[in-house]
Fold these 4 entries.
Entry 1:
Amino acid sequence: MLSVKPPRSTLSWLGLKLLSITLIALSLSACFEEAPQANPRAKDVTVSTAANFARALVSSDFTEAHALLSTQAQQRYSAAQLQQAYADMTSYGDGPGAVDGHVEFMDDWPVRQSQDIGWAYVSITGAGFIEAVTVVVVDERGAAKIREIEWGRP
């Protein structure tokens, strides 16, 4: 049987090609690594606090909503100011709002502060409106409190 060997230069070219393809594949796989999973406790605490705040707003319990705020946020917002902000946000709709279950969570963002536990977006819907509150939850002396509120959806 006759065996034909490719010239040496062809083998080198194939080897370089395979090496290049392998290096590119390894480089690309590093780009698509799965993001680290959020701390489950941070997510639970943040989502729970944010959802409780949203539920207090839609049930018109602005005293409870105010109690969920950090000390500094309580100085910025009275219960009456929370009521007004919620009314302004939903004024174009008809009827009461409801927390519809859509929640987004982050535990890392560019302006995160050292005591922050997490960031949450909670959707609120009603007849004729779709809105949301976005909050930053902070650890204040061992209790989860809201230090920042953004009213309305982006």
Entry 2:
Amino acid sequence: MLNDAHKKLIQDSWRMVVPVADTAADLFYRRLFERYPQYRALFGDDLGSQKKKLIRMLAFIVKAMDWMDAQWKEEVPPERDLMLVVVAMGRRHSDIYKIPDESYAAVGEALLWTFDYALGEAFTEEVKNAWALTYTLVAKAMRMGSAVVDRNAAVNSREFAQKLGEEALFQQAKAAGHSDDPLYLEGVP
């Protein structure tokens, strides 16, 4: 279970990634396809929108960590519920994109490598463990999504999560002093 200390490590390290988010996305996909070239065929020729989706989803996940342990008993609107959004994302990855179950380990490996490369010495063992735990929980929830029956909920939550991710990334970039970058501004009012 993620605790407040894990959440703080994730949020603090994410703040350091936000200014180099586009480079981090490039590194992530480069590493994934170098180590697991069989997954390249699952993506279209233009990875630009996929890279943005990755960063926005990570921003959404980090934003969801604003809730401290005691707040998890409170009511959350479904479109802001991290668990529901991630379960729906798993459904889409399974049913629509035909992402194989075994790819979750490869993605986790590439993600941790990317954070290690992007953060350098700031990627301490504690930070690594917090990200590994977060990814493990997200991957488990996504796998559960393949059993979800309501396809419309999966599609609708993706769009809302992308919007919330855009807004979160913009706010995170603004806090880091990088809000003039087009990556952060696209689609944000």
Entry 3:
Amino acid sequence: MPLPIQPLRIPVFVSCPSALSQSQTASAKMILEQLEKNKLQWRALGQPDYSRQLPLAEVIGMIKHCAGGLILGFQQYEAKSVEYRRGVKGEHRKLGKVCFPTPWNHLEAGILYSRKIPILVFHEPNIGGGIFDTGIIPEFTHKMPTPNMGKAAKDELDSLFQRWSSEVKDYYHGY
């Protein structure tokens, strides 16, 4: 009788908050399914890895053993009103509602980028700034997938993950 040995899955670091809303969880599950379909393994601090080290040291250690990075820009904070560049003459503006992801998204993206690891960035529609701005990294940022996406959008998501996973596998194998 053959042993139930799990197939090799290449580890990718996923920057994602540990607490998500129901709709955010549905999007994260879609991404997890894409990882599994492409033989990749979700690795994130606290999910399922726990450590006795300080979080930043643990993140750096985990990323050293990953061949890809996913940044999931889910809304974590909401401000009803924001003042932009307060005290700067000619640039001060009052903005309406502004939403923010976890600040760890930016920190972890910077670590991944500095190691030249293939990165794939997704964000909810109301998330911008930092890593989520167009042109910050050579790769594009993408809208967060949702379960109500049409077939064409789901096919496009499949293609996107196939292209990115090919880069991840090349990185992993040292090509």
Entry 4:
Amino acid sequence: MLSYARAGDTIIVHSIDRLARNLTDLLGIVNLLTERGIRLEFYKENLVFQEGGESDPISRLLLATLGAFAEFERVIMKERQREGIAQAKQRGVYANHGRSLKLSKKDITRMKELAELGWTKDKLARELGIHPRTLTFYLKREGITLQREPTGRKHLFSDEQTIVLKRKFEAWEGKKGEFAKTLGIPRGTLDRYLKKAEALLSQSEVQSQASLQ
């Protein structure tokens, strides 16, 4: 913009902080443009600078004052950003490569538990409130491979997952209905798989006893 503008042109800037990052640059740009015969307007501050503007000391004073405040606000914002990043790193929700993580350590633990229970990628992403591509990033990072559902979706959980489900339910301190909601299944479906788990465990115990005889 600075190299393209010609004498007689008018440049309209929304606010002072949009034109320069510090007071020195701001004054330098204003002087450069006005010396080339270019009119400069700041919409928000209602200030106008043009060739011969040296005769208006009030506008120059306002420009310097407002520019100084804009620079001060920018410095404060950067300082708060650094403090926020430091706090996020202490809580373990900020990546080492500088990108803010969308899942906390608690969320990642829950992701692992649900993945172990056979949740699909789309369902797991909806539960965690993230995009499937973001979920893929976490799955790869944690070394988790989701199991594919069988064709027809006749069974939500495999035998091994059913036994894991029962053990997790036994450690659950809330109500059965609440546990079913965490799995995204009706309570009746949960009851069916809990009974199946009992049958599988009983069968496994019988086989173990038979092998010892």
